[in-house]
Design goal:
This protein is an all-alpha fold. It has helices at residues 2-48, 52-60, 65-78, 84-94, 100-112, 118-165. The protein has one domain (2-156). 86% of the residues lie in helices and 0% in strands.
């Protein structure tokens, strides 16, 4: 029984470390992909003048699953299958690693996407890119600093518990 308890505590500590590491990695990947999406969106609108749903379809193949969930929800929104509130709820439910302010800004950006003339749209995309670039940089730095730190910390904590209980 004591051995089972020791193994359980060790595994729980390691899992907590893994979850924290995964959180920081997801944030980094999401904001890097969102920044790349803004660049692709600017290029597609500027040079190809393609429709928004075609642009979203092309980008679905390029990025990871977290931002793809956002793209799928947005595609449903522009096709009229989701209301503003349902889109926001979907965003909040699926992207729980984002902070509240980030969710609000991303929701506002996507809800207003495609609502302006070409030049205004490009300016809105540029403004949004400028808004998320510091967040992207911060997410990259925090992933480098904290993800492995927390994993090692909880691994070490698990080993300390094992040593104490033995």
């Amino acid at each position: 029984m004591k051995l089972f308890l020791i193994i359980t505590i060790f595994v729980c500590c390691v899992l907590i470390g893994i979850l924290i590491k995964k959180y920081y990695k997801k944030r980094q990947n999401f904001f890097c992909d969102l920044s790349s999406f803004c660049e692709n969106l600017t290029n597609d609108i500027s040079y190809n003048s393609e429709k928004l749903d075609i642009i979203i379809d092309k980008n679905l193949k390029l990025f990871n699953s977290d931002i793809n969930q956002l793209f799928c929800a947005f595609k449903q929104y522009i096709n009229g299958n989701l209301s503003d509130d349902n889109f926001k709820d979907n965003l909040y439910k699926n992207l729980n690693f984002l902070h509240e302010k980030e969710r609000i800004e991303i929701a506002k950006f996507f809800i207003n996407l495609g609502a302006f003339a070409k030049d205004e749209e490009l300016q809105k995309i540029l403004n949004f890119s400028n808004l998320i670039n510091p967040v992207k940089t911060d997410a990259i730095e925090k992933n480098k600093k904290f993800s492995s730190l927390y994993f090692k910390l909880f691994l070490f904590l698990g080993i300390v518990f094992v040593i104490i209980f033995i």
